[in-house]
Amino acid sequence: MTFSKLAVFLTLVALTICAGCDSTQSSAKLDRDVGTVALEIDFGGEKRSKSIDVVCSPDSTVLSTLQRAENTGELKIEFSGSGETAFVNSIDGVKNDGDGSNWTYRVNDDLGDKSAGVFPVGPGDRISWTFGAKPEELD
């Protein structure tokens, strides 16, 4: 009988610990720092520029911000790859043309130095996508 009581006690302790872990994780999710990112799209004269405030979270990237804007119906994007190989091919039908005008992005005025799929952004950041000639910094 003592063994049975010990087994029941240990089971209750394990369940209590697990329940505590779950509630801690749930409250951590609720406490996540969520805000907005200012997304600016300059079509280089191809069409009128857009400014959109997009909800973001601590794990947001430049690309996931574009995807959220697309999910709200604010714009349409085409991209290939994912993560480090993600590449934005077009925004609202304006497509890269290879040797001439292409899409580049800046975060808080700094030219993106990696794929939009891995470049992190957070609440209060400003993402600017510009369609046009290669930025001077890349010459």
- Widest sheet, order of strands: 2-1-8-6-7
Mean pLDDT: 82
> Percentage of helical residues?
25-40%
- Which residues sit in consecutive blocks of at least 5 with pLDDT less than 50? 3-31
Main pleated sheet: 5 strands, mixed
How many domain modules? 2
Topology as H/E string?
A: HEEHEEEEEE
CATH architecture level-2 label of the largest domain: Beta Complex
CATH level 3 topology of the largest domain: Ferric Hydroxamate Uptake Protein, Chain A, domain 1
Taking all Cα atoms into account, the compactness measure Rg is: 23 Å
Q: Label the overall shape.
A: globular
Give a verbal description of the structure.
It is a single chain. The protein is α+β, with helices and mostly antiparallel strands and 139 residues long. The protein has two domains: 1-31; 35-138, Ferric Hydroxamate Uptake Protein, Chain A, domain 1 (Beta Complex), CATH 2.170.130. The chain has two helices and eight strands, in the order H-E-E-H-E-E-E-E-E-E. It has helices spanning 2-30, 62-71, and strands at 35-42, 50-56, 77-80, 87-91, 94-95, 102-107, 110-111, 126-132. The strands form two sheets. It has a five-stranded mixed sheet with strand order 2-1-8-6-7, covered by helices on one side. The chain has a three-stranded antiparallel sheet with strand order 3-4-5, covered by helices on one side. Strand 4 and strand 5 form a beta hairpin. The N and C termini lie far apart (81 Å). This is Transcobalamin-like C-terminal domain-containing protein. It holds the Pfam family DUF4430. Residues 60-132 form the Transcobalamin-like C-terminal domain.
